[in-house]
Amino acid sequence: MSVGLVIVSHSAQLAAGVVELAAQMAPNVVLVPAGGMDDGGIGTSLEKVMAALGLADTGDGAVVLTDLGSAVMTAESALEFLGSPELVSLADAPLVEGAVAAAVAAQSGASVDVVCKAAETALTPGGVPAAAEAVPTAAGGASAVEQQDKESQGEGAVTAVLTLINPMGLHARPAAALAGELGAMDVEIEINGADGQSVMMLMTLGAAQGTDLNVSATGPDAQRAVDLVRREVEAGFGEL
After folding, report:
1. Which one, out of 54, 69, 167, 175, has a CA that is 20 to 30 A from the CA of 6?
2. 195: phi > 0 → left, psi -120 to 50 → alpha, else beta; which?
3. Where do the domains of the chain lie?
4. DSSP 185
């Protein structure tokens, strides 16, 4: 099985919509909406969240994502009633982007902690929490992201320049497929400067057919990761 996701929203329709979207990226992940009040009105329901947690955690744990402040309080209360289970995490993440990133990570077989981090860093370059981006290092004032960029561009990197040939380019489905498979590898990989293990960062590239992808990878799985990207790009992500 895999880590499940619970989507808590004040709106039943919004929760269901986020689940529908994230499910496109992760067909094997259990995603459960917990939106609206018990009577169908706007709000959050403790009973709905607790029931959703029971459905989402099939043995490997679950990650909870919420929309607004009181949804966080409802989710926290549900976890307290359940005895704060070790394999359940409440993500501090944007609802839509976080859910998509978390779903991709869960699809790859990642642990609860990794899935939660994927949600929380969905919109930050290199998977670094936003709070860390502006923190200078003691040595020279470089941010954590800048330092990581320097390391990933160091000597010994495996590189490739690949041209997108599929008509729709690097849209959501291939971005999710790449991020999911690369996320399971021990590698630091950038594609046109974006974190190759982040579905949201890949999607922000807006890379259309004919775009060159500059791939650079370091780490134990660097060659395997670049070979994977090459295969997928040259096969048109199965869309030709």
Report:
1. 175
2. beta
3. 4-123, 154-238
4. S
Q: What is the pLDDT of residues 43-99, one digit of tens each?
A: 999 999 999 999 999 889 999 999 988 999 999 999 999 998 889 999 999 999 999
**What are 108's two structure tokens?**
């790859």
Distance CA 147, CA 167 (A): 36
Q: Return mean pLDDT, the chain.
A: 86
* Number of DSSP helices (H) and strands (E) in the chain, helices first: 10, 8
**Residue 59: φ, ψ to 5°:** 135, -25
Calpha distance 151→4 (Å, rounded): 33
- pTM beyond 0.70, yes or no: yes
Phi and psi, residue 8, nearest 5°: -105, 120
Q: State the angle between helix axes of 46-56 and 69-81 in degrees (0 to 180), rounded to the nearest 10.
A: 60
CA 9, CA 3: separation in Å to the nearest integer?
A: 20
| Assigned CATH for 4-123 | 3.40.50.510
Is the CB of residue 115 less than 8 Å from the CB of residue 90? Answer: no
Calpha distance 111→91 (Å, rounded): 14
* CATH top-level class of 154-238: alpha beta
Least confident of 15-19, 23-27, 233-237: 23-27
Active-site residue (options: 2, 6, 9, 10): 10
* Residue of 101, 68, 70, 63 lying closest to 197 (CA atoms): 101
> Residue 185 corresponds to which tokens in the numbers above?
């590898």
- Backbone φ/ψ region at 29: left (φ over 0), alpha (ψ -120 to 50), beta: beta
